[in-house]
Amino acid sequence: TKYTSDLLLNLLSWAKSQMGGVNVHLAAVNVKGIVDKAAINKIPAAAKKNIKLTYSINPSLKAIADADMLHIIIRNLVNNAIKFTNAGGDIYIKAARADNEVEISVQDTGIGIPKDKRNSIFSLKTESTFGTDNEKGIGIGLMMCKDFMNYQNGKIWFESTEGVGTTFFISLPVALR
């Protein structure tokens, strides 16, 4: 049920954004609070695969973001990390200030992204791939994340090594207050 709920939320969020119905509410948001909210819902899925999910975030770190969009992005990145990490693996979520930006990373010890799929990972040209426990997606999550980062004046990118893991990064303007 939780998987179907996440899938439906992604579909509805993306469909709404494609119909021009996106209302972006940029404000100073507490990064740790958003990561807490997104990660807490993913703990059962990680536990099912015996994946250790840890994060280290300064509780006073703030970014300029739309809280709902950032929550959906973090949730999707963590969900993908769980999906593509073998049982007994690790996922680390980190956030830190880098100059005038807040950089958030979701790192896994998963299977990595094949080189032939890397150029299309943020588009509809990519096909959904089964996870390490045969989990299935619909292939729009990362494209939606990229769109949502663009709406927030942010960036998203990744580094991946097949057989070692993947780290997704997002950066947003830092909130000074």
Quick structural gist:
This protein is of the alpha+beta class. About 35% of the residues lie in helices and about 25% in strands.
Q: What are the SSEs and their pairings?
A:
Elements: H1 2-18, E1 27-30, H2 31-40, H3 43-48, E2 52-57, E3 62-65, H4 67-83, E4 90-98, E5 101-108, H5 141-151, E6 155-161, E7 165-173
Parallel strand pairs: 2-4
Antiparallel strand pairs: 1-3, 4-5, 5-7, 6-7
Helix pairs in contact: 2-4, 4-5
Largest sheet: 5 strands, mixed
Uncertain runs: none
Terminal CA distance reads: 39 Å
Shape descriptor reads globular
**How are helices and strands ordered from N to C?**
HEHHEEHEEHEE
By DSSP (H or I, 4+ residues per run), the number of helices equals 5
Query: Structural class of the secondary structure composition?
Result: alpha+beta
Portion of residues in beta strands equals 25-35%
Range of helix content: 25-40%
Q: Can you count the beta strands?
A: 7
Radius of gyration: 15 Å
Widest sheet: strand order?
A: 2-4-5-7-6
Overall average pLDDT: 86
Can you walk me through this structure?
The structure is a single chain. With 177 residues, the chain is an alpha+beta fold. It has helices at 2-18, 31-40, 43-48, 67-83, 141-151; strands at residues 27-30, 52-57, 62-65, 90-98, 101-108, 155-161, 165-173. The strands form two sheets. The protein has a five-stranded mixed sheet. Strand 4 (90-98) and strand 5 (101-108) form a beta hairpin. Helix 2 (31-40) crosses helix 4 and helix 4 (67-83) runs antiparallel to helix 5. The N and C termini lie far apart (39 Å).
